[in-house]
Each structure stands twice: as C-alpha cells, then as structure tokens.
Amino acid sequence: MDCDPGSSSSPPPNPNLYDGEVLWTINNAPTITYFKRGDTNRPLCVLIPGAAHLARIFYGGHKSHDPRDFLAHWLVTNPTSNPKSGSSKLDSMTEGEAGYNILAISYPLETTPPLMPSTRPDFTVREWGVQAAEATKRVMDRERLSCDVGVILLVWSMAGKIIAPFDQAARARGFDVRLVVSLNSTPPLRGLRGNPPRPAVSQAGYVHGGHVSDEYFLRQLREQRAINSCASTSTSGSESVDGGKNSNNDSKSGNSGNSDNTNGSGSIIVPDDIFIKEYTGNFPVGLAAWGLRWSRQDQDGTTINNGNSTVHSSSNGGKMIDDPHAGYEVYDETTIKDLPPMCALYGDSPADLRHSAGDRSMWAFLISHNLMGGINAKESRFLAENPEVGKRVIKLIHAAPDRLCAEVEGGHHFFLGEKGAKRTATWVIEMEKRMQEVKRELDILLGRDQTR
C-alpha cells in the first residue's frame, strides 16, 4: 500500500540552499530535506546528522563538489561486495545497479548565511524524532514510496539519541524502522561521559561549543582527505582501481592550489572554509545531553517548562538551564527490547578515541539486549525445557555483535571521501543482509511462524 497523503509546505526559495534541498516548517520547527530516488522497491535510507552539522555532510552540494565523495551517492548507486561471512572486513567493491532511496534531514540549525529561521533553540530530542519521522512520511507520500518497504535509519554522532522517538513516531505514521545503522553515534545511555564546560550561546540561543569545536571537525576532515588520497592515483589522466577521480581534476575546488585543502592526490572532499560556512552551524543545546537545555520565557520574565531545573544564564528572551534529563527524556521511558533492530559501524582513528574504542561495546550491549528482549515468556519456557536449543540461542545472541558491528577505516567522519563513502554504503547493504540472517536463524530456533 502507499502512505496516505499528508500536508506539506512550500516556503519561498532560499538562495543559500543547495540543489535538491527543500526547506519545511514541521511541528513548529524548521528543517531541510534532501531526497534522491533509487529503486522504489527497496527501503528508504533516512540519514540524520550529528552535533553542529547539516545533513549536507551526507550528500554534499557545494560548488564543484564531487558526489562520489559523499555517502548518499553510493547508497543510491549501490556498490556491491563479497565480504566473508561474519567478517568485519570487505573485499572488492564495484559499482552496481540502483539501490536505496535516500532522505537526509537537517534539524534546526543557526547558520551564516541563514538557511532556516533561528527560532528553536529550545528544540528537544523528542521533537527531533517526531519532526524527522513526519518529514519522512511527507516525502514518502510525495514520492509515492510504499510504507511496506520500510526505513533504514542511519544515525551519526549525536543522532544516536533519535532512535526511540523516531521509531515511535514512525509507527504512529504507518511505517517501520527495519534497521538502525549507527555511524560513530552515541546511544542515549547515561554516564558514558561527563558534561563539558558550559558552552557559549548565540544571540538566538543556539550553541556551538562543549566537546566540539571547528578545529576538532577540521582535524577529522583532514584525516579523511589523507585516507582518501588512496582513492585517486597520482598518474595524470588515469583512474585508480577503486574507481577514484582523475588526480589532475582541478574542478573539484576553486582552491585546488591551497596546500591546506589538498592532499597528495588532490582529493579535498570539502575545502576548510566551505566546510565550516556551509556544512556546520550552531545547534539546540537540549539535543546534546550535556545536562542543559534552553527554556523560553513568557513576556513578564517567568520561565516556563523548566521543572525543577536551576537557571544559570539568560539571553534575549530565554535561558539556558540545568536539566539532567535533557536528551534522555524519551530513552528513559523506553526499554531496549522496544527499540528497532540495530547494528553499528565505527572508525579506527585515535583522533576519535571515544567512538573508535567505545562504540563496539556500547552497541554490542544494545544489540544483545534487543535480541534477548524480543524473546517472550512462552519462548523462554520452551528454551528452558529444551536446553540444547536454548544453548544455541545463547550462542547466537553472544555472536550477534560480531556479525552486526564493523570497523571502518577513518575517524569521526569516516563516511566522507570516495573510499570511506563507498565502503560505508557497502556495509549498510551487508548489515541489512546480516540482520535478516540473524532474525531468520533466531526465528527458526524459537519455532516462530516464518510468514510473519
């Protein structure tokens, strides 16, 4: 069946938007979407960016950009590979037939030049999930994509917090999240890290500070340039065996002569200044789980919706307040078994140590408990009464993280650059297959109806 038609908005064109971007107001908050069609019989990949980033990080669009440096191109183009069963390493990759449909969704950000109204510094994780799910539903309606094919949700960095609210809102709108793919993302588990120093606040109430800085992001980008230099050959007029670009193609940037923006093969991905100006911005503090959120005030100065939080700073019509629940409000109400199926991709770079060293164990915990939590009381009794089958189920759950977690060369932005983008897309395809295999094996052991 097709989704029922929903409402949409058609705001005036914004000259700062890239080709294909659409500015919406959904649930009283701005958002920018970018859709690219693949095979309509295949799932829709929904891509959600992390802190301080527009969803452009997934599809590019700046002047003289190369689409092959971005993940969206390869998700639609569908690179194919032949990884060994259960392996976290990929063998060869080649360009294949049309693949996934993709939808990249930017949450409210304050940018210069402005792309969307800077009106929601108080935007919450719950609103984030609902807005993204509603945007997904509207695009599915507009593009006449079947709800039956479902969604693969790709979450990067801070966007790990969106899983529960997006999934709940998606089911309420008639479509399912068939798989979550973590891209160096942080799940909403309490106590993983301490809160950063109190960040600076813009006049509009948005933040760009704490753990993150422009220099940190640029360090990650430069590492991807170095890694992806292997995707291009230094020989004039030729292409690499990986399908890399011509090393003498200066059209990728008007800055090709700037040594700060190039590596040995000329693969710059995004020039530094363009990256900061057109790909990043200030974001709502409540999305970060830093123990802070923005609270609006009514006209007589009374803070509203602040619960028992302590007010520490104020700026132009609102206050940043302490709130230990900010960022966790939906996850605290959710059990792991009720989350959609999950897998994880993470980098190997010491420059992103928290994710490179910690993501596998965090997501292995969630994957295992999600599978185990799906076993109902009747099935648990069956396993207790049939211990040989029960032991096989235990081994399957123990081994699942090895099958559903994989390392990708690179840092926090490992999916940037042709080599990283292509490899990441290949892993998404592979993880969809592996999740189906794990679920099928578990269903057989538990005697579930395979037609469900």
- N→C terminal distance: 17 Å
- Count of folded domains: 1
Low-confidence stretches: 1-8, 231-266, 298-316
Estimated share of beta-strand residues: 5-15%
The share of residues in helices is 25-40%
Mean of pLDDT: 84
CATH topology name: Rossmann fold
The CATH architecture can be named as 3-Layer(aba) Sandwich
Count the strands?
Answer: 13
Structure description:
Residues 229-265 are annotated as: Disordered. There is one protein chain. By secondary structure, the protein is α/β, with parallel strands linked by helices. The chain has a single domain (21-283, 327-446), classed as Rossmann fold (3-Layer(aba) Sandwich), CATH 3.40.50. It has 10 helices and 13 strands. The chain has helices at residues 56-59, 71-77, 125-142, 163-172, 214-228, 272-279, 353-373, 377-385, 387-404, 418-446; strands spanning 21-26, 29-36, 44-48, 79-81, 93-95, 101-106, 151-156, 177-183, 292-296, 311-314, 318-322, 342-346, 405-407. The chain has an 8-stranded mixed sheet with strand order 1-2-6-3-7-8-12-13, with helices on both faces. Helix 4 (163-172) links the parallel strand 7 and strand 8 (177-183). Helix 2 crosses helix 10, helix 7 runs antiparallel to helix 9 and helix 8 (377-385) packs across helix 9. It starts with 20 loop residues before the first strand and ends in a 6-residue tail after the last helix.
